[in-house]
Amino acid sequence: MMVRKLVGSTLLVSVVFVLGVSCAPTDRPVDAGSSDASQGVSSMKWSTLSGTPPIIIAHRGASGYRPEHTLAGYELAIAQGADVIEPDLVFTKDGVLVARHDRYLSTSTDVADHPEFADKKRRNPDPNGEAREDWWAEDFTLAEIKSLRARQAFPGRSTEYDGQYEIPTFDEILTLATEQAKTLNRSVGVYPETKHPDYLESIGLDFEDPMLSALRGFDAGPVYIQSFGPSILKRISGKTDAKLIQLVHEESPGSGSNIPLAEIAAYADGVGPAKAIVLPDVPILGGVDFVTRAHELGLLVHPWTFRKDQPAGPGVATISFPVDSIAAKVVKSDAEVEFYRYFAAGVDGVFTDFPDIGADLRDALADGED
Ligand code: G3P
Ligand code: CA
Asked: What's the family (predicted)?
C-alpha cells in the first residue's frame, strides 16, 4: 500500500508502505541532491561507497519475467538495464559449472518428466543438507543436464516460457555477457555465487580452479564472486581480481552465516546482506546503521532480493521528501518505494528479479527525469 499526501506548509510528500515487521520512519536525509535547473527538481545524491549510483544486479537473470538462470533471462535483464547478471553456480557430475540456484533439479527443470532419469532420484547426499528426495545436479553429466528444460520455479509467476530453455553453463553465460557488451557498447558484469562450496569440495568438485579459470580473460564488465561460505572466499582472496562479497543472512545469528563486518573486511570487498538487516533501524548483526558501519570498513553493500511480487522486509516505513524533488516525481509504485528506501540508505547495489524497475528508477533519480 502506498499513500501520498501533502503535509501542511512544508509541502512534503509522505510515502507509507507496509513491509512486514514494525520499524520507525527513517530520519536519514533523503534526496538532498544537486539542483537541476532544466527539470526544476533535484537529482539524487548517492551515499554509496564511491558516490556513484548503485549497480543493478539481475538476480538469477530477469527472473521475474523468464525462468531463472536461463540465457534468455540473462539477456532480457541486460536489455532492461542490469549492470551485472547473477548466475548461482553448481557442478555437473563431469565437473562443469552450470547455473542453478539449487543442487536439486525438480523445481526449476522438467527432470521429473524424463523417465530415463527416474532412477537418479535419491535422498540429498549432503549429510548436512536439507533432507529431501530429488534429482541432484552433481549426479548428471553435462550432456544429461543439457537434455533438461528450464521451468518457472517461483510460485505465481508466468509459466509461459517453460520448456523452452536449456540449463546454461558458466562459460555460456560469460560468452553472452561478452557478446551483449559488444552489441550494446557498454559494460556487462557477472556476479557468480558458489553454492554449497564446502559440500561440493568434499566430493571432489572444488569451485576454485574452474571458476577462476573461466573468469580469466573476461573483460566485459566488473566481476564479483559471492558466497555464503567464507572458506571459499578466503581461499581465493588474492588469487583473482574479482571483488569478493560475503553473503550474510538474517536468520540463525551465530550459526556461521552472520559474520561480523570487521571479520569480513579482512578477506572480502563487500557484504551481501538479506535486505531486512540493512535498514538502519533494525538492530541485527550487532548494531544499527548497517550501511554506515560497512562503508566505514570499506565494504560494499549489496542487499537481496527486491521483488515487486513479494514485497517483504521490515516494517511500516515512512519517507518524506520535498514535493518538488526528483524522488517525489519518480517514486510511484510500492516496488519503487522499496528500492528508493535502500538507495537512500546508501547501498552500493541491489539484487533484483525485476532489473527494469531498479534500473529505470535508479536512472531517473540520477538524471532528474521520469
Ligand atoms: O546471492 C544473493 C542472493 O541471491 C542470495 O540468495 O538464495 O537467491 O541465492 P539466493
Ligand atoms: Ca544468489
From this structure: Belongs to the glycerophosphoryl diester phosphodiesterase family.
Residue 135 corresponds to which cell in the numbers above?
A: 534429482
Reported as a single tens digit per residue, the pLDDT across 261-300 is: 889 999 999 999 988 788 755 444 444 588 998 999 999 9
- Asked if 101 is an active-site residue, the reply is yes
Q: Choose among 175, 174, 109, 172: nearest CA to 144.
A: 109
pLDDT tens track for 1-33: 232 222 233 333 444 433 332 233 333 334 444
**What pTM, to 2 d.p., does this model score?**
0.88
Rounded Cα–Cα distance for residues 308 and 5 (Å): 23
Starting from the CA of residue 304, give the closest ligand. Answer: 1
Region class of 211: left (phi > 0), else alpha (psi between -120 and 50), else beta: alpha
Alpha carbon 346 to its chain's center: 16
Q: Which domains does the chain have, with CATH numbers?
A: 55-103+167-367 (3.20.20.190)
Catalytic residue among 101, 196, 295, 302: 101
Residues in Cβ contact with 184 at an 8 Å cutoff, skipping those fewer than 6 apart: 78
59 included as an active-site residue = yes
The SS3 of residue 21 is: coil
